Amino acid sequence: MIQFLLNQELRSEHALDPNLTVLNYLREHLGKSGTKEGCASGDCGACTVVVGELHTDDQGAEHIRYRSLNSCLTFVSSLHGKQLISVEDLKHQGQLHSVQQAMVECHGSQCGFCTPGFVMSLFALQKNSEAPDSQKAHEALAGNLCRCTGYRPILAAAEQACCNKPQDQFDSRETETIARLKAITPTQTGELNSGDKRCLVPLTVADLADLYDAYPQARLLAGGTDLALEVTQFHRTLPVMIYVGNIEEMKRIEDFDDRLEIGAATALSDCYAALHHAYPDFGDLLHRFASLQIRNQGTLGGNIGNASPIGDSPPLLIALGAQIVLCKGETRRTLALEDYFIDYRVTARQDSEFIEKIIVPKGHALFRAYKVSKRLDDDISAVCAAFNLKIDNGVIREARVAFGGMAATPKRAKSCEAALVGATWNNATVEKACAALAQDFTPLSDFRASKEYRLLSAQNLLRKYFIELQTPHIETRVTAYV
């Protein structure tokens, strides 16, 4: 059984189909049709809902952390121990919520299909903001697409909603809601079981290891932003899943003098502060990783584990010399991330083995990262590049250069690195290294970019890296190219 709050209503579910998304649960099981399906792939934001979780801040105070999610990519099992808020829950005692009222007064709704998603993103923004902030508003709304081109009034609504925001029913009930969430805090493995399909929800790494050993055919579910597409886009059935999002051990970020250790189930939005502090370029690129709804849900371990050749984090982590800790039963092994990827969607992971955490070395001052995509926000990379050099007295002593989107796996550019190491850091060396990239990669053409465009972009990004190190005042990193 799993338990969660539907606004303030306690829901206990056991026999639901584990493949059921929150979107379809709301619409088909509860008759709450305000949440819309636009794309069923996490791109449009029409299905946005907000999930509240217990959170203890650095001062030890408890509060509820509200986050926007794409309900079309969220399986119901991930709600265990949390609070689900949909657009129907905002209106209170016959009065529109302040974010809804702002949308009305600023004329932010046109055809109206996307409006519930915008409203829920605005609600989460308001809950997480102390004052109007244009940058945060753009970030919060980047995952919501309006086909009526009504963005200016929606941004005006965001400013109004976050300016002198009034107390709402969620604020007045916070103490009560915290107590209710504590009462349903999971204490043992939860389960959804429809007879032919099941999803197990362990609470510890040891329990996960035991379950995965017992069900080696199970699919591991973290954020689900990639896995759920098998159900929503390809109409496949996932007979057995194991949800790892309630394992606190796998959601920790530990900051040591020489490294970061990040639990594999840590949401990308939770990784931002630590990675940005260590490597500003990594943080900047995370801001362009899909949308805020996806970053609130997707995990760093999932972005590695699905072995996509266009995942944004693996090239950066490979360039930094990151390692992963793989767990199977009581056995753990540490593997260089670059050795994890073998071929397209093929990895070195053994049966019943899972990524427990990622180890990111610190102290690489010349690390830079770049993403080339058609849109600045909420888009997949055509090319993602990461450069990490050690230069001593003008001579390159070490070089790690990695790319995504250039091969069947995220991959180091070994010929390029060989052209760099031992050479003087100058334009001639860079041009030799650019030429060597043609030996490292034979990229494919697809709807994102041609092979010629990819190769030239990769070469130009190395040239860009050289220029930026020569003139560090230039702030043009992590740029989109259209």
From TrEMBL:
Example GO molecular function: xanthine dehydrogenase activity
Protein name as catalogued: Uncharacterized protein
Oxidoreductase found in the keyword field: yes
Keyword Oxidoreductase applies: yes
Stored InterPro entries: 2Fe-2S-bd, 2Fe-2S-bd_dom_sf, 2Fe-2S_ferredoxin-like_sf, 2Fe-2S_ferredoxin-type, 2Fe2S_fd_BS, Ald_Oxase/xanthine_DH-like, Beta-grasp_dom_sf, CO_DH_flav_C
Keywords: FAD, Flavoprotein, Iron, Metal-binding, Oxidoreductase
